[in-house]
Write a structure and sequence with these properties.
Blueprint lengths: L2 E3 L7 H13 L6 E3 L7 H12 L6 E3 L8 H11 L9 E3 L15
Parallel strand pairs: 1-2, 2-3, 3-4
Helix pairs in contact: 1-2, 2-3
Amino acid sequence: NNSLDLSGIPLTAKDMERLSSYLQSNAGRVSSVELCFTELTDEAFLQLLPTLSALPLLNTLSLNGNRLTKAVLRDLTDTLKDPEKFPSVTWIDLGNNVDIFCLPQPFL
C-alpha cells in the first residue's frame, strides 16, 4: 500500500517540515495522501503544496475536515493548471473545511 494516512492526528508547523521531507524521500512510491481532520491550516497547506504537487504517482489527496479556507483554492487551482504539477491526481477531497462550499471548475 503506497498510502500515507495521518488522518485524525493534529499536525504542527514542525510536522509539516517532517512530512514534506518524508514525502520528498518517498516521492516515487506515494500514490495517496490522507490528511483528514489534522487541523491543517491554509499556511501549513501552502507550505506543503510544492511537495505534494511534485509527487509523480499521487492520485488521491484527502484534505477534508480541516481549517482550510477558500483562500487556498486560488493557489491550488493555479498549481493544477500547470501540467508539470500533480501529474497523476484524479481526486482531491476538500469537504468539511471552513468555508469551501463548492469547487472551482478545474476540480470537477
